[in-house]
Protein 1
Amino acid sequence: MKQKIGFLALWTAVAGGLNLVWEIFQLPLYTIYYGTDMQTIAYAIAHCTLGDALIALSSYLFAAAATLSWNWPVDRTARGATVAVTTGLAYTVFSEWLNVSVRGSWAYTPAMPQLFGLGLLPLLQWLVLPLLGLFIFRALERRMIDLNQNRDR
Protein backbone atom coordinates (compact mmCIF):
# COMPACT_ATOMS: atom_id res chain seq x y z
CA MET A 1 0.00 0.00 0.00
CA LYS A 2 2.82 2.37 0.88
CA GLN A 3 4.38 1.84 -2.54
CA LYS A 4 1.07 2.58 -4.32
CA ILE A 5 0.72 5.85 -2.43
CA GLY A 6 4.33 6.63 -3.32
CA PHE A 7 3.62 6.15 -7.04
CA LEU A 8 0.51 8.34 -6.82
CA ALA A 9 2.33 11.02 -4.85
CA LEU A 10 5.31 11.08 -7.21
CA TRP A 11 3.11 11.27 -10.31
CA THR A 12 0.95 14.02 -8.81
CA ALA A 13 3.95 16.04 -7.62
CA VAL A 14 5.67 15.86 -11.01
CA ALA A 15 2.43 16.75 -12.80
CA GLY A 16 1.73 19.58 -10.37
CA GLY A 17 5.14 21.14 -10.95
CA LEU A 18 4.94 20.86 -14.73
CA ASN A 19 1.39 22.21 -14.81
CA LEU A 20 2.28 25.14 -12.54
CA VAL A 21 4.90 26.28 -15.03
CA TRP A 22 2.51 25.74 -17.96
CA GLU A 23 -0.30 27.70 -16.26
CA ILE A 24 1.99 30.65 -15.55
CA PHE A 25 3.14 30.85 -19.14
CA GLN A 26 -0.27 30.39 -20.76
CA LEU A 27 -2.14 32.78 -18.42
CA PRO A 28 -1.59 35.84 -20.69
CA LEU A 29 -3.72 34.03 -23.29
CA TYR A 30 -6.74 34.31 -20.95
CA THR A 31 -8.63 37.53 -20.32
CA ILE A 32 -8.34 37.17 -16.52
CA TYR A 33 -4.68 38.15 -16.84
CA TYR A 34 -5.60 41.69 -17.91
CA GLY A 35 -7.23 44.27 -15.69
CA THR A 36 -7.13 42.19 -12.50
CA ASP A 37 -4.99 42.40 -9.39
CA MET A 38 -2.11 40.08 -8.48
CA GLN A 39 -4.17 38.29 -5.85
CA THR A 40 -6.76 37.27 -8.47
CA ILE A 41 -4.02 36.14 -10.84
CA ALA A 42 -2.28 34.14 -8.08
CA TYR A 43 -5.59 32.53 -7.15
CA ALA A 44 -6.26 31.61 -10.80
CA ILE A 45 -2.81 30.02 -11.12
CA ALA A 46 -3.21 28.08 -7.86
CA HIS A 47 -6.76 27.01 -8.69
CA CYS A 48 -5.85 25.83 -12.19
CA THR A 49 -2.70 24.05 -11.02
CA LEU A 50 -4.60 22.22 -8.29
CA GLY A 51 -7.22 21.22 -10.86
CA ASP A 52 -4.48 20.01 -13.20
CA ALA A 53 -2.94 17.93 -10.40
CA LEU A 54 -6.34 16.32 -9.76
CA ILE A 55 -6.77 15.60 -13.48
CA ALA A 56 -3.29 14.04 -13.51
CA LEU A 57 -4.07 11.97 -10.42
CA SER A 58 -7.31 10.73 -12.00
CA SER A 59 -5.49 9.95 -15.24
CA TYR A 60 -2.93 7.93 -13.30
CA LEU A 61 -5.68 5.95 -11.60
CA PHE A 62 -7.44 5.25 -14.92
CA ALA A 63 -4.14 4.10 -16.40
CA ALA A 64 -3.45 1.90 -13.37
CA ALA A 65 -6.86 0.28 -13.77
CA ALA A 66 -6.41 -0.21 -17.51
CA THR A 67 -2.95 -1.75 -17.13
CA LEU A 68 -3.63 -3.57 -13.87
CA SER A 69 -0.42 -2.03 -12.54
CA TRP A 70 0.26 0.72 -10.05
CA ASN A 71 3.70 1.15 -11.60
CA TRP A 72 2.49 1.39 -15.19
CA PRO A 73 4.93 4.21 -16.04
CA VAL A 74 7.72 1.62 -15.76
CA ASP A 75 6.23 -1.76 -16.56
CA ARG A 76 3.36 -0.94 -18.95
CA THR A 77 4.45 2.41 -20.31
CA ALA A 78 2.80 2.58 -23.73
CA ARG A 79 -0.65 1.44 -22.66
CA GLY A 80 -0.62 3.47 -19.47
CA ALA A 81 0.57 6.62 -21.23
CA THR A 82 -2.13 6.21 -23.88
CA VAL A 83 -4.83 5.95 -21.22
CA ALA A 84 -3.42 8.82 -19.13
CA VAL A 85 -3.10 11.17 -22.10
CA THR A 86 -6.54 10.24 -23.45
CA THR A 87 -8.16 10.71 -20.04
CA GLY A 88 -6.53 14.10 -19.43
CA LEU A 89 -7.26 15.29 -22.94
CA ALA A 90 -10.90 14.14 -22.86
CA TYR A 91 -11.51 15.92 -19.57
CA THR A 92 -9.82 19.07 -20.86
CA VAL A 93 -11.92 19.14 -24.03
CA PHE A 94 -15.07 18.85 -21.92
CA SER A 95 -13.91 21.39 -19.33
CA GLU A 96 -12.79 23.99 -21.86
CA TRP A 97 -16.05 23.65 -23.79
CA LEU A 98 -18.17 23.84 -20.64
CA ASN A 99 -16.30 26.75 -19.05
CA VAL A 100 -15.71 28.84 -22.17
CA SER A 101 -18.74 28.17 -24.36
CA VAL A 102 -21.49 27.27 -21.87
CA ARG A 103 -20.73 28.88 -18.50
CA GLY A 104 -18.47 31.71 -19.61
CA SER A 105 -16.28 31.06 -16.56
CA TRP A 106 -13.21 32.14 -18.50
CA ALA A 107 -12.38 33.53 -21.89
CA TYR A 108 -9.46 33.50 -24.28
CA THR A 109 -7.70 36.54 -25.62
CA PRO A 110 -7.44 36.85 -29.41
CA ALA A 111 -3.84 35.59 -29.10
CA MET A 112 -5.00 32.11 -28.00
CA PRO A 113 -4.89 29.77 -30.99
CA GLN A 114 -8.14 27.84 -31.17
CA LEU A 115 -9.54 24.71 -32.75
CA PHE A 116 -13.34 24.45 -32.88
CA GLY A 117 -13.56 27.16 -30.22
CA LEU A 118 -11.22 25.36 -27.83
CA GLY A 119 -7.87 26.79 -26.81
CA LEU A 120 -5.01 24.87 -28.40
CA LEU A 121 -2.62 25.43 -25.52
CA PRO A 122 -4.81 23.64 -22.93
CA LEU A 123 -5.17 20.75 -25.39
CA LEU A 124 -1.43 20.70 -26.04
CA GLN A 125 -0.88 20.80 -22.28
CA TRP A 126 -2.53 17.38 -21.93
CA LEU A 127 -0.65 15.93 -24.87
CA VAL A 128 2.80 17.17 -23.87
CA LEU A 129 2.93 17.29 -20.06
CA PRO A 130 1.82 13.72 -19.27
CA LEU A 131 4.51 12.40 -21.61
CA LEU A 132 7.15 14.71 -20.17
CA GLY A 133 5.96 13.78 -16.68
CA LEU A 134 6.29 10.11 -17.60
CA PHE A 135 9.98 10.54 -18.43
CA ILE A 136 10.60 12.51 -15.24
CA PHE A 137 8.67 9.94 -13.17
CA ARG A 138 10.73 7.09 -14.60
CA ALA A 139 14.01 8.92 -13.97
CA LEU A 140 13.04 9.79 -10.40
CA GLU A 141 11.83 6.27 -9.68
CA ARG A 142 15.13 4.81 -10.96
CA ARG A 143 17.00 7.30 -8.79
CA MET A 144 14.96 6.31 -5.72
CA ILE A 145 15.60 2.61 -6.40
CA ASP A 146 19.35 3.30 -6.70
CA LEU A 147 19.33 5.27 -3.44
CA ASN A 148 17.44 2.47 -1.64
CA GLN A 149 19.86 -0.18 -2.96
CA ASN A 150 22.87 1.87 -1.86
CA ARG A 151 21.30 2.42 1.55
CA ASP A 152 20.68 -1.31 2.01
CA ARG A 153 24.33 -2.22 1.34
Protein 2
Amino acid sequence: MSRTDGLWSFGGKPGRGKTHLAVAIAYRAIQNGFDAYFTTAATLIDDLSAAFRAGELAQALPTYTHPAVLVVDEVGYLTYGTDAANMLFHVVNERHRRKRAMIFTTNKALKAWGGVLHDEDLAQAIIDRVLERGRLFRLDGPSLRTLHVNLDDALNQGSDRPEEVIRISGNRCPEFPEPTHADCPPS
Protein backbone atom coordinates (compact mmCIF):
# COMPACT_ATOMS: atom_id res chain seq x y z
CA MET A 1 0.00 0.00 0.00
CA SER A 2 1.57 3.25 -1.04
CA ARG A 3 1.19 6.66 0.59
CA THR A 4 -1.40 7.77 -1.96
CA ASP A 5 -3.50 4.63 -1.91
CA GLY A 6 -6.70 4.25 -0.24
CA LEU A 7 -9.66 6.40 0.24
CA TRP A 8 -12.48 4.01 -0.42
CA SER A 9 -16.16 3.89 0.22
CA PHE A 10 -18.04 0.61 0.01
CA GLY A 11 -21.75 1.22 -0.41
CA GLY A 12 -24.72 -1.08 -0.67
CA LYS A 13 -27.61 -2.64 1.16
CA PRO A 14 -27.01 -4.67 4.33
CA GLY A 15 -25.39 -8.07 3.93
CA ARG A 16 -23.44 -7.34 0.75
CA GLY A 17 -19.98 -7.85 2.29
CA LYS A 18 -18.91 -4.23 2.82
CA THR A 19 -17.55 -4.70 6.34
CA HIS A 20 -16.03 -8.06 5.45
CA LEU A 21 -14.13 -6.53 2.55
CA ALA A 22 -13.00 -3.49 4.59
CA VAL A 23 -11.71 -5.71 7.41
CA ALA A 24 -9.91 -7.95 4.90
CA ILE A 25 -8.11 -4.93 3.42
CA ALA A 26 -7.13 -3.68 6.88
CA TYR A 27 -5.93 -7.16 7.82
CA ARG A 28 -3.82 -7.33 4.67
CA ALA A 29 -2.31 -3.94 5.53
CA ILE A 30 -1.39 -5.28 8.99
CA GLN A 31 0.20 -8.34 7.39
CA ASN A 32 2.34 -5.94 5.35
CA GLY A 33 3.60 -4.01 8.38
CA PHE A 34 1.07 -1.17 8.55
CA ASP A 35 -1.13 -0.42 11.53
CA ALA A 36 -4.90 -0.30 11.15
CA TYR A 37 -7.85 0.75 13.26
CA PHE A 38 -11.49 -0.33 12.93
CA THR A 39 -14.38 1.66 14.36
CA THR A 40 -18.00 2.37 13.63
CA ALA A 41 -19.01 5.86 12.58
CA ALA A 42 -21.21 6.14 15.66
CA THR A 43 -18.33 5.26 18.00
CA LEU A 44 -15.93 7.67 16.27
CA ILE A 45 -18.45 10.53 16.37
CA ASP A 46 -19.53 9.85 19.96
CA ASP A 47 -15.92 9.53 21.15
CA LEU A 48 -14.80 12.75 19.50
CA SER A 49 -17.94 14.63 20.57
CA ALA A 50 -17.35 13.65 24.21
CA ALA A 51 -13.68 14.65 23.91
CA PHE A 52 -14.67 18.00 22.40
CA ARG A 53 -17.13 18.70 25.24
CA ALA A 54 -14.38 17.83 27.75
CA GLY A 55 -11.88 20.09 25.98
CA GLU A 56 -9.76 17.08 24.96
CA LEU A 57 -10.36 16.82 21.21
CA ALA A 58 -6.67 17.23 20.35
CA GLN A 59 -5.81 14.27 22.60
CA ALA A 60 -8.58 12.07 21.14
CA LEU A 61 -7.90 12.72 17.44
CA PRO A 62 -4.67 10.65 17.08
CA THR A 63 -6.61 7.44 17.71
CA TYR A 64 -8.30 8.07 14.37
CA THR A 65 -5.69 10.10 12.48
CA HIS A 66 -2.51 8.15 13.27
CA PRO A 67 -3.07 4.58 11.98
CA ALA A 68 -1.99 3.88 8.40
CA VAL A 69 -5.45 2.46 7.65
CA LEU A 70 -8.71 3.57 9.24
CA VAL A 71 -11.93 1.64 8.67
CA VAL A 72 -15.09 3.60 9.51
CA ASP A 73 -17.97 1.15 9.42
CA GLU A 74 -21.69 1.80 9.13
CA VAL A 75 -21.83 5.46 8.07
CA GLY A 76 -25.53 6.28 8.10
CA TYR A 77 -26.87 3.24 9.94
CA LEU A 78 -27.58 5.13 13.14
CA THR A 79 -28.54 8.71 13.88
CA TYR A 80 -25.80 11.01 15.08
CA GLY A 81 -25.68 14.20 17.09
CA THR A 82 -25.76 17.57 15.36
CA ASP A 83 -21.96 17.86 15.51
CA ALA A 84 -21.42 14.62 13.55
CA ALA A 85 -20.13 16.23 10.36
CA ASN A 86 -17.79 18.47 12.33
CA MET A 87 -16.26 15.52 14.20
CA LEU A 88 -15.91 13.34 11.11
CA PHE A 89 -14.45 16.23 9.12
CA HIS A 90 -11.60 16.62 11.62
CA VAL A 91 -10.57 13.01 10.97
CA VAL A 92 -11.11 12.97 7.22
CA ASN A 93 -9.35 16.27 6.62
CA GLU A 94 -6.29 15.31 8.67
CA ARG A 95 -6.03 11.87 7.07
CA HIS A 96 -6.51 13.39 3.61
CA ARG A 97 -3.78 15.94 4.29
CA ARG A 98 -1.37 13.20 5.41
CA LYS A 99 -2.44 10.83 2.60
CA ARG A 100 -3.51 8.10 5.01
CA ALA A 101 -5.86 5.36 3.87
CA MET A 102 -9.52 5.44 4.91
CA ILE A 103 -12.24 2.94 4.17
CA PHE A 104 -15.90 3.77 4.75
CA THR A 105 -18.82 1.36 4.64
CA THR A 106 -22.30 2.77 4.19
CA ASN A 107 -25.81 1.84 3.23
CA LYS A 108 -26.57 5.44 2.25
CA ALA A 109 -26.07 7.12 -1.10
CA LEU A 110 -23.39 9.80 -0.95
CA LYS A 111 -26.01 12.50 -1.57
CA ALA A 112 -27.74 11.40 1.67
CA TRP A 113 -24.66 11.94 3.85
CA GLY A 114 -25.57 15.59 4.41
CA GLY A 115 -28.83 14.63 6.05
CA VAL A 116 -27.22 11.82 8.03
CA LEU A 117 -24.40 14.05 9.30
CA HIS A 118 -26.63 17.13 9.82
CA ASP A 119 -24.55 19.42 7.60
CA GLU A 120 -24.76 19.38 3.80
CA ASP A 121 -21.66 21.55 3.29
CA LEU A 122 -19.35 19.58 5.58
CA ALA A 123 -20.67 16.29 4.22
CA GLN A 124 -19.84 17.51 0.72
CA ALA A 125 -16.34 18.49 1.87
CA ILE A 126 -15.87 15.03 3.43
CA ILE A 127 -17.03 13.26 0.27
CA ASP A 128 -14.87 15.55 -1.88
CA ARG A 129 -11.76 14.57 0.07
CA VAL A 130 -12.64 10.89 0.11
CA LEU A 131 -13.24 10.73 -3.64
CA GLU A 132 -10.37 13.00 -4.75
CA ARG A 133 -7.92 10.11 -4.59
CA GLY A 134 -10.37 7.39 -3.74
CA ARG A 135 -13.06 5.23 -5.24
CA LEU A 136 -16.67 4.42 -4.51
CA PHE A 137 -17.59 0.76 -4.84
CA ARG A 138 -21.26 -0.29 -4.94
CA LEU A 139 -21.76 -3.84 -3.72
CA ASP A 140 -24.99 -5.22 -5.10
CA GLY A 141 -26.60 -8.62 -5.32
CA PRO A 142 -28.42 -10.62 -2.69
CA SER A 143 -27.67 -10.36 1.01
CA LEU A 144 -25.01 -12.88 1.94
CA ARG A 145 -26.57 -13.26 5.39
CA THR A 146 -29.94 -14.38 4.05
CA LEU A 147 -29.15 -16.26 0.84
CA HIS A 148 -30.78 -19.35 2.34
CA VAL A 149 -34.18 -17.61 2.64
CA ASN A 150 -34.03 -15.46 -0.51
CA LEU A 151 -34.85 -12.39 1.57
CA ASP A 152 -34.75 -9.97 -1.36
CA ASP A 153 -37.57 -11.84 -3.11
CA ALA A 154 -39.51 -12.18 0.12
CA LEU A 155 -39.30 -8.42 0.77
CA ASN A 156 -40.29 -7.58 -2.80
CA GLN A 157 -43.25 -9.96 -2.89
CA GLY A 158 -44.53 -9.39 0.63
CA SER A 159 -43.50 -12.26 2.85
CA ASP A 160 -46.68 -12.54 4.84
CA ARG A 161 -47.63 -15.76 3.14
CA PRO A 162 -48.12 -18.54 5.74
CA GLU A 163 -45.30 -20.68 4.33
CA GLU A 164 -42.87 -17.77 4.75
CA VAL A 165 -44.03 -16.67 8.21
CA ILE A 166 -43.26 -19.97 9.95
CA ARG A 167 -39.96 -20.60 8.18
CA ILE A 168 -36.99 -19.74 10.38
CA SER A 169 -34.16 -21.14 8.26
CA GLY A 170 -33.75 -21.80 4.56
CA ASN A 171 -34.99 -25.33 5.01
CA ARG A 172 -38.64 -25.89 4.22
CA CYS A 173 -38.89 -28.70 6.76
CA PRO A 174 -37.22 -28.75 10.18
CA GLU A 175 -34.33 -31.15 10.69
CA PHE A 176 -36.22 -32.83 13.54
CA PRO A 177 -39.90 -32.44 12.61
CA GLU A 178 -42.71 -32.81 15.07
CA PRO A 179 -44.57 -36.09 14.56
CA THR A 180 -47.75 -34.16 13.82
CA HIS A 181 -46.20 -31.88 11.13
CA ALA A 182 -48.08 -33.09 8.03
CA ASP A 183 -46.26 -31.01 5.38
CA CYS A 184 -42.86 -32.67 5.82
CA PRO A 185 -41.99 -36.26 4.96
CA PRO A 186 -40.59 -38.37 7.81
CA SER A 187 -36.80 -38.42 7.93
Protein 3
Amino acid sequence: MDARGVLDSINVPLVLCVGTSAEEIAAIARATGGRLAVLYLPDTASLRAALASPGEVPVPAAVPEPVPTHRVVEFGKLRLDADLREATWRGSLVPLSAREFDLLFALTRDPGRVWTFAQLTTHVWERPYLGDIEAVVSAVKRLRRQLRSAAPGVVVESVRGGGYRLVVADTPD
Protein backbone atom coordinates (compact mmCIF):
# COMPACT_ATOMS: atom_id res chain seq x y z
CA MET A 1 0.00 0.00 0.00
CA ASP A 2 1.36 3.43 -0.90
CA ALA A 3 1.46 6.46 1.49
CA ARG A 4 -1.84 7.79 0.12
CA GLY A 5 -3.53 4.46 0.79
CA VAL A 6 -2.26 4.52 4.38
CA LEU A 7 -3.61 8.04 4.84
CA ASP A 8 -7.00 7.06 3.41
CA SER A 9 -7.30 4.00 5.69
CA ILE A 10 -6.75 5.82 9.00
CA ASN A 11 -9.96 6.25 11.02
CA VAL A 12 -8.55 8.37 13.87
CA PRO A 13 -7.23 11.93 13.97
CA LEU A 14 -3.87 12.17 12.25
CA VAL A 15 -0.90 14.37 13.05
CA LEU A 16 1.71 14.77 10.35
CA CYS A 17 5.16 15.46 11.79
CA VAL A 18 7.54 16.79 9.17
CA GLY A 19 11.23 16.77 10.06
CA THR A 20 10.43 16.10 13.71
CA SER A 21 12.77 14.20 15.99
CA ALA A 22 11.85 10.89 17.57
CA GLU A 23 11.75 12.55 21.01
CA GLU A 24 9.27 15.16 19.78
CA ILE A 25 7.04 12.50 18.21
CA ALA A 26 7.10 10.54 21.49
CA ALA A 27 6.15 13.71 23.40
CA ILE A 28 3.21 14.30 21.04
CA ALA A 29 2.05 10.69 21.47
CA ARG A 30 2.31 10.98 25.29
CA ALA A 31 0.50 14.34 25.35
CA THR A 32 -2.43 12.93 23.37
CA GLY A 33 -2.64 9.64 25.25
CA GLY A 34 -2.44 7.63 22.04
CA ARG A 35 -5.83 8.93 20.85
CA LEU A 36 -4.46 9.86 17.44
CA ALA A 37 -2.13 8.56 14.78
CA VAL A 38 1.25 10.20 14.32
CA LEU A 39 2.84 9.94 10.87
CA TYR A 40 6.48 10.94 10.58
CA LEU A 41 7.72 12.40 7.30
CA PRO A 42 11.39 13.35 7.04
CA ASP A 43 10.91 16.43 4.84
CA THR A 44 8.38 18.51 2.89
CA ALA A 45 9.09 16.58 -0.31
CA SER A 46 7.90 13.40 1.43
CA LEU A 47 4.80 15.27 2.65
CA ARG A 48 3.98 16.39 -0.90
CA ALA A 49 4.43 12.85 -2.16
CA ALA A 50 2.17 11.45 0.59
CA LEU A 51 -0.58 13.97 -0.15
CA ALA A 52 -0.39 13.70 -3.96
CA SER A 53 -3.22 11.98 -5.77
CA PRO A 54 -2.40 8.60 -7.32
CA GLY A 55 -0.48 9.12 -10.54
CA GLU A 56 0.11 12.80 -9.80
CA VAL A 57 3.70 13.96 -9.85
CA PRO A 58 4.33 16.17 -6.81
CA VAL A 59 5.61 19.65 -7.57
CA PRO A 60 9.04 20.15 -6.02
CA ALA A 61 9.22 22.73 -3.27
CA ALA A 62 10.65 26.10 -4.19
CA VAL A 63 14.01 26.82 -2.66
CA PRO A 64 13.35 29.47 -0.02
CA GLU A 65 15.16 32.77 -0.15
CA PRO A 66 17.80 32.99 2.55
CA VAL A 67 16.51 35.00 5.48
CA PRO A 68 18.93 37.78 6.34
CA THR A 69 19.97 37.70 9.94
CA HIS A 70 19.88 41.06 11.60
CA ARG A 71 22.58 40.90 14.19
CA VAL A 72 21.77 44.38 15.55
CA VAL A 73 18.16 45.43 16.06
CA GLU A 74 17.08 48.92 17.07
CA PHE A 75 13.58 49.77 18.18
CA GLY A 76 13.29 53.35 19.42
CA LYS A 77 15.95 53.84 22.08
CA LEU A 78 16.23 50.08 22.59
CA ARG A 79 19.22 48.42 20.91
CA LEU A 80 20.00 44.71 20.83
CA ASP A 81 23.29 43.30 19.60
CA ALA A 82 22.97 39.55 19.04
CA ASP A 83 26.71 39.05 18.49
CA LEU A 84 27.56 40.63 21.86
CA ARG A 85 24.30 39.39 23.47
CA GLU A 86 23.74 42.87 24.87
CA ALA A 87 20.62 44.96 25.23
CA THR A 88 20.86 48.69 25.87
CA TRP A 89 18.22 51.31 26.63
CA ARG A 90 19.35 54.87 25.88
CA GLY A 91 22.94 53.64 25.91
CA SER A 92 22.71 51.93 29.33
CA LEU A 93 23.12 48.18 29.59
CA VAL A 94 19.97 46.19 30.41
CA PRO A 95 20.97 43.09 32.40
CA LEU A 96 19.21 40.07 30.89
CA SER A 97 19.58 36.32 31.17
CA ALA A 98 20.16 34.37 27.96
CA ARG A 99 16.47 33.38 27.72
CA GLU A 100 15.30 36.95 28.45
CA PHE A 101 17.61 38.26 25.73
CA ASP A 102 16.35 35.68 23.21
CA LEU A 103 12.75 36.54 24.03
CA LEU A 104 13.35 40.29 23.74
CA PHE A 105 15.30 39.78 20.50
CA ALA A 106 12.39 37.84 19.00
CA LEU A 107 9.90 40.51 20.04
CA THR A 108 12.01 43.34 18.54
CA ARG A 109 12.64 41.68 15.18
CA ASP A 110 9.17 42.52 13.93
CA PRO A 111 7.92 45.63 15.80
CA GLY A 112 4.21 45.62 16.48
CA ARG A 113 3.78 41.95 15.65
CA VAL A 114 1.73 39.88 18.06
CA TRP A 115 3.63 36.70 18.87
CA THR A 116 1.53 33.69 19.88
CA PHE A 117 2.62 31.23 22.57
CA ALA A 118 3.25 28.66 19.82
CA GLN A 119 5.44 31.05 17.79
CA LEU A 120 7.49 32.08 20.83
CA THR A 121 7.92 28.46 21.92
CA THR A 122 9.21 27.36 18.53
CA HIS A 123 11.26 30.51 17.88
CA VAL A 124 12.81 31.16 21.32
CA TRP A 125 12.85 27.68 22.87
CA GLU A 126 13.35 25.92 19.52
CA ARG A 127 10.92 23.13 20.32
CA PRO A 128 7.40 22.28 19.19
CA TYR A 129 4.48 23.86 21.02
CA LEU A 130 2.39 21.22 22.78
CA GLY A 131 -0.03 23.55 24.55
CA ASP A 132 2.08 24.34 27.62
CA ILE A 133 2.23 28.11 28.11
CA GLU A 134 4.03 28.18 31.48
CA ALA A 135 7.57 28.56 30.11
CA VAL A 136 6.55 31.55 27.99
CA VAL A 137 4.49 33.17 30.75
CA SER A 138 7.32 32.80 33.28
CA ALA A 139 9.94 34.16 30.89
CA VAL A 140 7.74 37.16 30.01
CA LYS A 141 7.25 37.91 33.75
CA ARG A 142 11.01 37.86 34.33
CA LEU A 143 11.65 40.00 31.24
CA ARG A 144 9.02 42.54 32.31
CA ARG A 145 10.63 42.78 35.76
CA GLN A 146 14.04 43.49 34.21
CA LEU A 147 12.62 46.04 31.76
CA ARG A 148 10.68 47.92 34.47
CA SER A 149 13.87 48.62 36.37
CA ALA A 150 16.39 49.08 33.54
CA ALA A 151 14.31 50.18 30.52
CA PRO A 152 11.04 51.77 31.73
CA GLY A 153 10.00 52.82 28.21
CA VAL A 154 9.98 49.22 26.95
CA VAL A 155 6.84 47.19 27.65
CA VAL A 156 5.92 43.63 26.78
CA GLU A 157 2.19 44.02 26.19
CA SER A 158 -0.32 41.18 26.52
CA VAL A 159 -2.77 40.86 23.67
CA ARG A 160 -5.85 39.02 24.89
CA GLY A 161 -6.44 35.87 22.89
CA GLY A 162 -3.32 36.57 20.83
CA GLY A 163 -0.06 36.56 22.73
CA TYR A 164 2.53 39.28 23.29
CA ARG A 165 3.95 42.28 21.49
CA LEU A 166 6.67 44.77 22.30
CA VAL A 167 5.88 48.45 22.71
CA VAL A 168 8.55 51.11 23.04
CA ALA A 169 7.38 54.47 24.36
CA ASP A 170 8.62 57.71 22.84
CA THR A 171 10.04 59.17 26.02
CA PRO A 172 12.09 62.36 26.07
CA ASP A 173 15.84 62.01 26.50
